[in-house]
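User: Please fill in residues for this 330-position structure.
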């Protein structure tokens, strides 16, 4: 599996915006009545999308997730039953580029309201953390001299999908989802608007907690199992160094491990973070070799019994505490 091939391309962002918003204008006012329940039926691709749909939809929405709790979202394959679920739903909420099987299934269904979260905020390139890949030294300036094939590969690699780990970007997506729900189910538009405002306010509060909690720390560098925290790091002035790049399954080279050991000493790094849904073997090996501690930093791709909290906000607060301890917050 190569998640680099699954990331949003620069050109896809424009298309994503059109898919996420343009499709809504064609929705008829009775679209909410076409689902398999008497509620506004929303099929969400994985936990961060399902959480938005539940918070914004409230009592009016019936939300189902295509990704089961504890299932690694990148590996999802769509079953026949799930395809039928999509066909019967009033809306699909997904993040194009993260789960190719979902992207394909959504594009093939006749569902009227297709909400692509990637088109509701700005995606960025955090791929430079992937030191283990060949040719990583090729900079932006060399793009113009590349062959057409090289350009296509560069674009495929371009965008980091982990927008929900930045409360500000997640709030932007929430606002877009709220507007989409209002258009698709106008009978309950006032409630969707109110629920969206409440969620955005809470996300702004979480942003404030992170801003204040990470303002004064001994170090700004943290090590993670894979590069899921680029947006969070950028938002709060931190530096993420990933062992395995954007692909949680890839193994780092010996040179990369040595580089991280040296960097840990230079930057005062105390902790290697791993996550709940992916093996911690690589993180623990590096930590042992470099005499570092290990802890969990949860990318929130799903909630399980191992999660440090029952929902997005609880787990994000747990992430903040873990970062404060690792970075030496004052």
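Assistant: Residues filled in for all 330 positions:
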């Amino acid at each position: 599996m190569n998640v680099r091939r699954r990331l949003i391309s620069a050109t896809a962002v424009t298309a994503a915006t059109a898919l996420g918003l343009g499709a809504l204008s064609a929705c008829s006012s009775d679209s909410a009545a076409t689902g398999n329940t008497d509620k506004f039926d929303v099929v969400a691709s994985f936990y961060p999308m399902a959480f938005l749909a539940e918070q914004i939809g409230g009592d009016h929405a019936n939300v189902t997730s295509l990704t089961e709790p504890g299932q690694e979202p990148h590996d999802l394959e769509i079953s026949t039953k799930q395809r039928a679920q999509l066909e019967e739903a009033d809306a699909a909420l997904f993040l194009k580029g993260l789960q190719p099987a979902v992207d394909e299934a959504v594009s093939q269904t006749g569902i009227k309201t297709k909400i692509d979260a990637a088109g509701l905020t700005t995606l960025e390139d955090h791929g430079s953390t992937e030191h283990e890949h060949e040719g990583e030294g090729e900079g932006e300036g060399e793009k113009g001299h590349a062959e057409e094939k090289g350009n296509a590969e560069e674009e495929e690699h371009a965008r980091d999908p982990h927008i929900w780990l930045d409360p500000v970007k997640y709030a932007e997506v929430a606002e877009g989802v709220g507007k989409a729900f209002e258009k698709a189910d106008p009978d309950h538009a006032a409630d969707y608007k109110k629920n969206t405002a409440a969620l955005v306010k809470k996300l702004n509060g979480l942003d404030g907690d992170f801003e204040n909690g990470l303002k004064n720390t001994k170090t700004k560098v943290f090590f993670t199992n894979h590069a899921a925290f680029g947006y969070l790091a950028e938002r709060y002035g931190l530096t993420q160094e990933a062992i395995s790049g954007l692909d949680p399954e890839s193994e780092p080279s010996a040179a990369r491990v040595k580089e991280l050991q040296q960097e840990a000493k230079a930057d005062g790094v105390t902790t290697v973070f791993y996550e709940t849904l992916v093996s911690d073997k690589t993180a623990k090996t590096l930590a042992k070799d470099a005499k570092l501690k290990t802890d969990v930093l949860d990318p929130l791709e799903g909630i399980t019994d191992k999660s440090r909290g029952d929902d997005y906000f609880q787990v994000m607060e747990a992430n903040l505490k873990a970062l404060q301890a690792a970075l030496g917050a004052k």
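For context: The chain has eleven helices and eight strands.
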